[in-house]
Amino acid sequence: MREVLQLLGDGRFHSGEALGALLGVSRAAVWKRLEQLEALGLEIHRVRGRGYRLASPISFLDQGVIASECLQAGWHAQVFESLDSTNAQALRQLAANADAPLLILAERQESGRGRRGRSWVSPFGENLYFSLGLRVEGAGFSLEGLSLSVGLAVLRSLQELGLNGVGMKWPNDLLVSGRKIAGVLLELSGDPSGTCQVVIGIGINVNMLPRSEVQIDQPWTSMRELCGHIVDRTDLALVLGRWLRHYLERHEREGFQGLQEEWESCHLWQEKEVSLIAGPQRIDGVVLGVDRQGALRLRVAGQERQFSGGELSLRLRDDS
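User: That's the sequence. What structure does it adopt?
Assistant: Structure tokens below.
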């Protein structure tokens, strides 16, 4: 199946005869492989006299290049065709005593997940599904504000690849012109005060374009839509890895307090009127920033209050 994808990945037409000859299989076998691709959610155009092509070119993850660079940095990297979730795979392998840091990437997620139990739409070969598994000692590595530090790594990666106007939304989203382009999901197992496993999950909308079968419950955009061209997903993975190493080292050395000012300078909703949703409760206030642990600072009825937690949702007020 990978061979067919590599041939069709250029977005051009290839005849059934040519595909069969290149793969050393019959036309019937080519048909079966094309059906397998469609089962992955890929759209294939068929035109009599011209052959077959993917509706859109694909930028594949290059496992050899990624593994080589990660090895030089002391990371162990694996690239999968399809997984339930890269975060889930990283947690499973850490629980089975896999070496860490462990980077898990996939071309597709069947059950990708975001914060607050939301699903993360994960079509084959279009976006970046990136999970870094770590083993950390609670006494030597602060988990407070870690997701915000990771968000800075994602932001700098997008900027390095030419994306302008991207900023942070507390706690874990990155937006461009009010539309979501990336998110961070941290998951832990073990004892946070002792030895625990931390998985840093990062999802970036790379080459996905709006179409009827893509159902996302909030405004979103992608690098391709904003830049006007296909983005090399391997390059993005490598750039993200470098920035992530940089910010993880700073976070370990300085804690989030060393990155607090930088994060606030990138926060799109500073001084904005917002509503904080916590279950059935709604709290209206004005964003003052974040504290040294990454908690949100709001001015509520003239008083400053701090909020943190994985089940909180922040929204702009209608009149803001």
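The two ends are 50 Å apart (CA to CA).
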